[in-house]
Write a structure and sequence with these properties.
With 387 residues, this protein is an alpha/beta fold. The chain has 3 domains: 4-75 and 197-246, Rossmann fold, CATH 3.40.50.620; 93-189, Glutamyl-tRNA Synthetase, Domain 3 (Glutamyl-tRNA Synthetase, domain 3, Alpha-Beta Complex); 250-378, Orthogonal Bundle (Glutamyl-tRNA Synthetase, domain 2), CATH 1.10.1160.10. Helices cover 41% and strands 12% of the residues. The strands form 5 sheets. Strands 3-4-7 form a 3-stranded antiparallel beta sheet. A two-stranded parallel sheet has the order 1-2. It is elongated.
Amino acid sequence: MSVRVRFAPSPTGLLHVGALRTVLFDHLFAQKHGGQNILRIEDTDRSRYNPESEQEFVTTLKWVGIEFDEGPHIGGPNAPYRQSERKEAGVYVPLVEELLAKGAAYKAFETPEELDEMREFQQINKQPTGYFGGAWRDATPEKVAEAEAAGKPFVIRQRIPRGQKVVMQDAIRGRVEWDSDLLTDPVLIKADGMPTYHFASMVDDHLMGITHVFRGEEWLPSFPIHWLLFEAFGWEKPVFVHCPVIVGADGKKLSKRHGATRVLDYAAQGYLPSALKNFIALIGWSPGNDQEAMTEEELVQLFGIEGLQPSPGRFDIEKLKWLNGHRIRSMSPEEVYDALLAYIAAPYTRQYWTEFVDENPMPNKAPVVGSEVLARLDRIPSAPKEY
């Protein structure tokens, strides 16, 4: 089996540490098995889509040293690679019609006001909140046809089987079970005809031949929905790998006080991409020995799903500093100087330090002032006579 993985971000903001770990695991796994790594842009939420964010993702990953075999910026046999463009190309229509014909999906015509009333009733009566069928899950064909003839807007929802135990397989946790009666009927196609993440992502994974899906464990509640969607189509499922949550060194949810969360900020702070990759790879994964400092080649050779842990991965900025220092000490003077010049010339360096505010100053030390950092960088000669 030829390995095919995908990084499928929704470009609504900046590229952060969690997303970098996902795409790094994709990259290492594909490299190890001689497979392909695909970039797919999941931009079905057009109200939040930001083209500048998409460009930052590409720029950041290029700095990190992660490249793709297929994607919107390089093309490929599965183009287009933006879901909005795939929707316009008619990729999803025949497949949702297939689900409707099978009875695995249905049209629901509730107004926003009716949905609000449903949620309010559920809350007042201490019932599970969500859409479990409403008035349309079991509506007669005549009732549906009448609503369509009247021009009522509708969404298309997945018909979740009731009274079943959904048994799934996760590569890290093994057997995962879910009571189908606790699952709501999710929207697959919105009223404007745009597919939701639940539908487009799973359809595209199948059509693009994705064999392994690396994603964060925050997607576990959606896992049974996606599993059932594959079963409704009768498709072979990819291997799902739900990577552990990332926490700070104190065990609490990762935030800015644990270190920067935007990946390009690490570039602006002077961290080497090789050190950052080494550090990120070790958050939730172990090579099976005590080795921590690894080259790119060693990471590729040692990486495997069996080394991933279900327990939270710790983000320890001190380990990143140590790995970065280890990398720098292994470089020749010429390599250090060339890296320094590239760092000074990079646009993100000046932007970062121009806007920098030291929100976490060191105890008993004056806060770092961005303008002073830039002044020191500007004094470094661009062409010394000798190293």
